[in-house]
Amino acid sequence: MSSPSSSSWLLTTFAAACAASAARAEEFSWQLSGVASRLEAGNFARDSWAVDGTYYVKPIDDSAGPSALASFLHPTTRVSAAASQSESFSEIADDPTAFTLNGAYVLPGNKWYFGANYAKSNLDGVVQPVTSYDEKGYGALAGRYLGASTTLELGLGRSERTLESSVCTAAAPCPPFVLPYSEETTTDTVSLDVFHVRRFRSLTYSLQGGVSQSEADFDVSSPLPSLVPATQGSGPTLRVYSVAGELFPTNRLGIRLGFSRPDGENAPDAETYDVGATWFFKPRVAVQFTLSRASFDNGPFTSHFDSTGIRFIGRL
User: Fold this and answer.
1) Cα–Cα distances in Å, from 102 out to 149, 172, 214?
2) Of 29, 128, 240, 277, which is the most exposed, with the fewest CB atoms less than 10 Å away?
3) pLDDT tens track for 188-211
């Protein structure tokens, strides 16, 4: 079940959404949302929550077209912030928390846009023998509208992770079979995405396709080089292909299907499917349901992870 802090965040967000529904203006400048989700893998389960807010510099008119596509159909400069927390699989470790900040600037003429993002994970308590853990990421993107209903977007990103094991001294020697070391991992990612919206008679639908490629470099060092030699190297290149489509029977309802699959040297034999529905039951308030399954085929063993989520959206 969600933690008390998770419930309070969601209730606060939903209250803001209800307040937003009272406004009948044709434009909105803010979008707030809160989501609760659960990941299940066999007998294990993990609950997560997240809240986010986006400010649009130029108010957006959502009176025409699907409500979920309002920011795409009316591009404008925006700034977003989000916070999330997940339950740790270990009872002796703190729940990791992540913070993200991103934005995009739309040039005059609504043809080109550029953006940047920054993310940082906070983990105060870690599982021994790890004594410290730090992870952050940042990136940039550039996109162009090819007409009024298609975008082509290029993204570049980098994440940096640092962890250290227990520091051993003469007064506090290392536990058996535990040696001190530190590891730094840097992962560079490049992605290309295409998004297209089309109207067919009374229906509107969107199509999305993307590919991303990641490469990781690692550096391991230790104060005991005779036992833990310094190591540097690169991991295998990993590519991920994804496609998705969403159908809008009405301007207030959207039904989405998605699929993704990794590829590359030593890439896991895995597939991810997801389905979701977004319903604006009031002009400024929506609820979104999502279901996904990731399946892994490891030779004689096959496993899968199921995820469910509910998200409330409010605009004002």
Assistant:
1) 23, 44, 21
2) 128
3) 999 999 999 998 888 999 999 999
